[in-house]
Design brief:
heterodimer, A: alpha/beta, Rossmann fold, 6-stranded mixed β-sheet, 4-stranded antiparallel β-sheet, about 35% helix, B: mainly alpha, about 0% strand, binds adenosine-5'-triphosphate, binds magnesium ion
Chain lengths: ~280, ~240
């Protein structure tokens, strides 16, 4: 990352902004005019039925796909008009947790987590403790020498989170991190996301089909002193230093944003389409 | 894509370790099939040509002919096709699986250029290893030919070797080593291209794998014609 590029992003603009974004394939447009923005340190929960374009939205935000029309900007950079080479360095500040984990299956868990550091030519002596720390964060330090295929689905998802957070990204994009997991494992994953938000203050874009995930993020926070998850009382914002800031919701329908608002609005809605997510 | 893999060599970051791993896999891994086939092809060549030459009482010429045919033609092309069968398919299926399981996207998401990390090491490794494999194939082929000539043509082993080696000149060797470099380039890029352009999940990976072998083999044979023509032309001009 060039120094100029780094300083350009210290301004207080939104971390991620979509402006009238269209994305289509041969079969037609999937996203049709999506505009939203995520301020720094906020968590945006992206809800939608399967095939509504959640994954595509996250890939657009990481610059893995280019919109057919419209603008995507991340940390003050116009992602949609950047070359792949420029994108590669911007992505150092973005963590991506893929829907299926997308771990490198020919590398051990430890090598997967260390991948980014090795790419950035961090000294080997420094890599070891950082990998341990990241794996400890997701409570999988004993699996460092195993291959991803030897882990359960939930463990793989956690490794994927460890891999995304290893270089302390400013933004983390979670693609359906709880899809296909049992409720207990899902809860573990969500509390990890919560800890990342409250300990490191990352900006997050979380795609999910499960509304509970979003509500959990909105109503609980990780207490650093007590080292466990506590409930946020609705009329009292967390005290200084804690960053369980805003959690907002966005619902996709037919390639457009159908609803955007805070948790209270969503839970008190009368709209029949939205109520389907509430059950 | 082919151009990009070359351009990547000139600029950083480079992945030497990956290239070494690939050389091990492609070079050492292909050794058995190349050696075994080489031996038998050499022997068969001697039997076939030998039986013709004996009719004219010129059995001694067998060594010359077999050496030239092996070094110029059969060695490179056979090695190319064998390695294409093994490595174009291997590369296509490996990269294809990585693509459908989003590992390629994951790589990009973590700031790695897949063309550097995946394509360049494979192309480089194949271009460097194929001439070596061809040289071994040629040698073992002559060995097989020698064995066959001793046992069936009653030609002395020493006579076979001296004639074979005398028959070869510098132009033959040039041709025999340029060809495998081109073939290596073809088979690796075809494998990478097919693998990274997979459509349609696991089934698509299977299809890409087959297509890679077929396309690489056909291209190698087609390239052989042009390279031979070119080599003969240059050979006349220069030597
Ligand atoms: N590479 C592609 N080529 C063509 N169509 C695609 C491609 N990728 C996605 N699509 C289509 O785009 C639509 C949205 O896909 P997307 O993966 O974003 O859905 P999603 O909201 O993440 O669904 P899920 O909750 O099941 O993960 C789907 O209908 C899919 O068929
Ligand atoms: Mg998805």
């Amino acid at each position: 990352m060039t120094p100029a590029a780094a300083t350009a992003t210290t301004n207080s603009g939104p971390a991620v902004a979509f402006d009238n974004v269209y994305l289509g394939f041969d079969e037609g447009d999937i996203l049709r005019g999506v505009s939203f923005s995520v301020p720094a340190r906020e968590t945006l929960v992206l809800l939608g039925e399967t095939g509504s374009g959640k994954t595509l939205t996250l890939k657009l935000a990481a610059g893995l796909l280019k919109p057919t029309r419209g603008n995507v900007s991340v940390l003050g950079h116009q992602v949609s008009s950047m070359s792949e080479k420029e994108l590669l360095s911007l992505r150092e500040r973005i963590g991506f947790v893929f829907q299926e984990g997308a771990l490198f299956d020919s590398m051990t868990v430890g090598e997967n987590v260390a991948y980014r550091l090795r790419e950035e030519h961090v000294k080997e002596t420094e890599i070891e403790p950082r990998v341990q720390e990241a794996l400890q964060f997701v409570e999988l330090e004993h699996t460092a020498d195993q291959l991803p295929s030897e882990l359960s689905g939930g463990m793989r998802r956690r490794v994927s989170i460890a891999r995304a957070l290893i270089n302390r990204p400013d933004i983390v994009l979670y693609d359906s991190p709880t899809a296909g997991l049992d409720p207990i494992t899902s809860q573990t994953i969500i509390s990890l996301i919560m800890r990342l938000r409250d300990v490191y203050g990352v900006t997050a874009l979380l795609a999910t089909q499960r509304l509970q995930d979003g509500f959990a993020l909105a109503n609980f926070c990780f207490d650093k002193e007590a080292k466990h998850v506590v409930r946020v009382s609705p009329n009292r914002r967390p005290k200084d230093g804690q960053t369980a800031d805003a959690t907002r919701f966005m619902v996709y329908k037919d390639g457009r944003i159908y609803f955007e608002g805070d948790p209270q609005e969503l839970s008190s809605t009368k709209d029949p389409y939205l109520r389907r997510f509430l059950v | 894509m082919a151009a990009r893999s070359v351009k990547n060599l000139a600029t950083g970051p480079r992945y030497f370790q990956d290239a070494l791993d690939q050389m091990d896999d492609i070079g050492v891994g292909s050794l058995p099939i190349v050696l075994i086939s080489g031996f038998f092809i050499g022997a068969v060549m001697v039997l076939q040509t030998g039986s013709q030459f004996t009719r004219f009482g010129q059995a001694a010429l067998t060594g010359d002919i077999v050496a030239i045919a092996l070094v110029r033609e059969l060695g490179p092309t056979l090695t190319g096709i064998l390695v294409a069968g093994r490595c174009s398919s291997g590369i296509a299926s490996e990269l294809g699986s990585m693509l459908v399981t989003e590992q390629v996207d994951a790589m990009r998401a973590m700031g790695t250029d897949p063309s550097r990390k995946l394509i360049t090491p494979r192309v480089l490794a194949t271009v460097l290893m194929l001439p070596l494999l061809t040289a071994l194939n040629d040698f073992v082929g002559l060995l097989g030919g020698c064995v066959a000539s001793v046992f069936s043509l009653r030609l002395g082993a020493v006579e076979f070797w001296t004639r074979a080696i005398k028959a070869l000149d510098f132009a033959d060797l040039m041709q025999g080593f340029t060809k495998p470099m081109v073939y290596g380039f073809i088979l690796a890029t075809v494998g990478c291209y097919k693998g990274l352009n997979v459509r349609g999940g696991t089934q698509g990976v299977g299809r890409a794998t087959t297509q890679a072998v077929v396309l690489a083999s056909v291209l190698i044979i087609a390239a052989d014609l042009f390279l031979t023509k070119l080599a003969l032309y240059l050979g006349d001009k220069l030597f």
